[in-house]
Amino acid sequence: MSRLFGSVRSRATLGATLVVAVALVTAGIAVLLSLRSNLTAEAGTQAERSARAVASELAAGTPYGGLSGLDGDDGPVQILDEDGGLVAASEDLERISGTATAEVRPRPSVPGGEDDDSDGSDDSGDGDSDGSDGSGEDLDPGEIARETTFGNGSATIDGDTEDYRFAAVGVETRDRGRLTVYAGAPLAAEHSAVDTAQTAMLLGLPLLLGVVAGVTWMVTGRALRPVEGIRREMAAITASEDLARRVPEPGTHDEIARLARTTNETLAALETSVERQRRFVADASHELRSPIASLRTQLEVAAAHPELLDLDGAVEDTVRLQHLAADLLLLARLDAGERPADALVDLAALAREEAAGRTGVTVDTEPAEVTGSRGQLGRLLANLLDNARRHARERVTVTVRREGDRVVLGVADDGEGVAEADRERIFERFVRLDAARSRDEGGAGLGLAIARDVAVRHGGTLTVGSAPTGGALFELRLPPAGRG
């Protein structure tokens, strides 16, 4: 069961079915209540019409025996006097409730005009009427009350018992005083219609919910089919470790298509990162092999022939190996996403500090502070100065200035410069463009790669162009302190 409802498809189907069920039940209840109210009101209108017809005859002075509404064809009728006594009722009326009295036979008149209530009949019915027409109006002789009161009850006529809607109307007669006419209209149509609607709803609701569940299941299944394809392909990629594969992209323009495109972009970035890492490991192994082999050879020769030990060469290889190891460790930390420190760094002071002691280097700066790691920024500047010094004929110039919302550090040389086609390649790891960048003179080809990675980690950029003197101009652009 938990697996069944653990899928998006199952939960969507269940949720849609429950929402529709609640909506249908709510709408069904509202329809039934509205239907019952309308039919009850219609029965009340019919009852009021019958009551006013009898009241009109009473106002005209028609005797009780000549009233047309007492034949029982249109429903039960009772006529009560001012004291609540029954003075007339429908023929064949056997039982009644919901009016002011449960009596069904008029009480005989006695001398003096008083009614004989010795039969012990209960003058109050069990309905919701209060025993009067409820109008409270002062009427002139022959006038009928404008207001009508209503109540529900039941009556038995000639052996048939039904529920009725009763209307009470008052009338002021000329010779019999204030009378109240109760007339009933049957509620059988209301009960029948409500029962029919209720039965239809009880039968139709499960069927409709089944249709909704089925349609939702099919629609969500079709909508989620591309997701299942993406999942299967991702599982296959994980099993095969083949990052060159891509998940299928549906031809739609919905969220699933965007998910597929984003997944493929992530796979492409991951493939690039893994390939870059593989190349890095291979190049690092290759670069480390040379100084280690050279150092080992010199040590083996020295062990056999101490007089042939090239101490300067061994020291040089050891220092080169140390620098290469430091570069590799720094690149590894940068690749791992190491965040630079948030210290304030005076870039102008750092430029003067790094340029000190280097021949042919001039510095032209203005105060400019940035936020970051002083050590990493110093390493970036040192790498740029080392690179510029290797290619300069005579002079290297370092500048620091504010330019708009950036601090710009420039390192220019008067060498041959960098061809436009190679201005991005030189920032790749282990890349040497010419003989001047050989292992012996130019290092391992990691300096500029480290410099660009440090610039990116500090929220800046590092580019190369042409210097005014014709050589290469490297420009570092960083956000000033407080602008991040």
Portion of residues within helices? 40-55%
Could you state the order of secondary-structure elements as H and E? HEEEEEEHHHEHEEHEEHHEE
Query: What topology, given as strand order, has the largest sheet?
Result: 2-1-6-5-4-3
Q: Which shape, going by the Cα principal axes? A: rod-shaped
Please identify the structural class as seen in this structure.
alpha+beta
**Proportion of β residues?**
15-25%
Q: What number of structural domains do the residues give?
A: 3
| Ends distance | 52 Å
Low-confidence stretches: 110-131, 435-442
Largest sheet: 6 strands, antiparallel
Q: What do the pLDDT scores average to?
A: 84
Instruction: Tell me the Rg in angstroms.
Output: 52 Å
Number of strands: 13
> How many H/I helices?
8
